[in-house]
Specification:
Layout lengths: L7 H14 L18 E6 L4 E6 L3 E2 L2 E2 L1 E5 L5 H9 L10 E5 L6 E2 L4 E3 L7 E4 L5 E4 L5 H5 L8 E4 L2 E4 L13 E11 L2 E8 L8 E8 L9 E5 L10 H6 L2 E2 L3 E12 L15 E6 L6 E4 L21 H24 L6 E4 L2
Parallel strand pairs: 5-16
Antiparallel strand pairs: 1-2, 2-7, 3-4, 5-6, 8-13, 9-10, 10-11, 11-12, 13-16, 13-18, 14-15, 14-17, 18-19, 20-21
Length: 349
């Protein structure tokens, strides 16, 4: 057997290519372990038989946020602080306020289902009289992991029909659960109210803009778990002028969403256990400052006056009695529209 004749240049080129392809050494670069503020790290706790999480301390106005946790899930530092304040319950299943710097464990509960066994988020009436249900969309990332699509259910003429394709891979689809971690800060809010009178003092109704705050007002910001967080709705001007209205006395910011993905072939409605995989979508990475604006005093409004001198001045009293309604409405509009409502903001630099 004879080998083909190769030039020295071709031989050297082949040897150089092989030498470049050889693995000489491997260097493993590990992370530093640094965690950004509000970093959420879920894990399955086999002793508690529950999903728990730590939240890396984040600060609002120089104070670390707090979270409600079971006495059995807080650190010795939290227990000692509560003992000094004579606020440590005797029962281990009681809840206490722990600071994030004290490294409490937060039990994750109240999961919402997304995908094959999800509940509908809304219903829509169609022109043909049928009703279609809307579901939360499965994120592309989890769809690629094998999470099934929400069911296609439609009500037609009083008959419930489920329109789904016969997917041969349906037995291998995965379930998805989600939970939102929310940062909250209590503040003073604005309220409006009407006070009605008999008109004997020249006033039929009085419109007041006052300030209010929650009975369980907290100085520190705090972490709350919600099945699905919804941003607070902004009230219309008509609602505010109608009276008996109070705005939100809490400012909120979504920190992260925790997702759990089941193994393949799990039946609908199952509760997450240690066999599920956890993923976190973080939405906040910085320490914050919180501030509330200053409520300016209302502007002055001139009352309408009609002087006629009729009937020895009796007509003037009747005129003012009638104009009192106009003046009250004018005062209400000037008082409310001429001043800003209270609002809080999270911000950073």
């Amino acid at each position: 057997m004879s080998l083909p004749v190769q030039s020295a240049e071709a031989w050297n080129g082949m040897i150089a290519a092989l030498r470049r392809s050889l693995v000489v050494s491997v260097t493993e670069v590990e992370g530093t372990g640094w965690r950004h503020p509000w970093n959420v790290r879920p894990q399955w706790d086999p002793l508690r038989k529950a999903w728990v999480s730590t939240v890396w301390p984040g600060f609002v106005g120089g104070l670390d946020a707090s979270v409600e946790a079971l006495v059995s899930d807080v650190s010795l530092e939290t227990r000692e602080r509560l003992k000094r304040g004579k606020a440590l319950p005797a029962k281990q299943d009681a809840t206490v306020e722990a600071w994030l710097t004290e490294k409490p464990l937060v039990r994750l509960a109240g999961w919402r289902a997304i995908g094959p066994d999800a509940a509908a988020t809304s219903a829509t009436s169609n022109p043909d009289g049928s009703i279609s249900l809307t579901y939360e969309e499965v994120p592309d990332f989890f769809r690629n992991l094998g999470v099934g699509e929400p069911p296609a259910i439609q009500f037609t003429a009083g008959i419930l029909t489920e329109q789904t394709s016969m997917d041969p891979e349906s037995g291998k689809r995965r379930l998805l659960r989600a939970l939102d971690v929310v940062l909250k800060q209590d503040r003073v809010g604005t309220a409006t109210q009407w006070t009605t009178g008999a008109g004997l003092d020249g006033s039929f109704a009085q419109f007041d803009v006052i300030t209010t705050r929650a009975l369980d007002f907290r100085v520190r910001s705090y972490i709350d778990l919600e099945s699905q967080w919804t941003p607070p709705a902004v009230a219309s001007l008509q609602d505010r002028l109608a009276g008996n209205w109070t705005d939100d006395t809490t400012d909120e910011r979504l920190i992260a969403t925790v997702y759990l993905v089941s193994p393949e072939g799990m039946g609908p409605g199952q509760e997450p256990d240690g066999s599920w995989g956890a993923y976190v979508k973080h939405r906040l990475f910085w320490n914050l400052t919180h501030a509330t604006n200053y409520l300016r005093p209302p502007g002055q409004s001139e009352n309408l006056v009609l002087q006629t001198g009729l009937a020895g001045g009796v007509g003037d009293a009747l005129n003012q009695f009638i104009l009192a309604q106009v003046n009250d409405a004018n005062s209400a509009a000037a008082q409310f529209l001429g001043r800003e409502g209270l609002a809080g903001r999270f911000w950073t630099v």
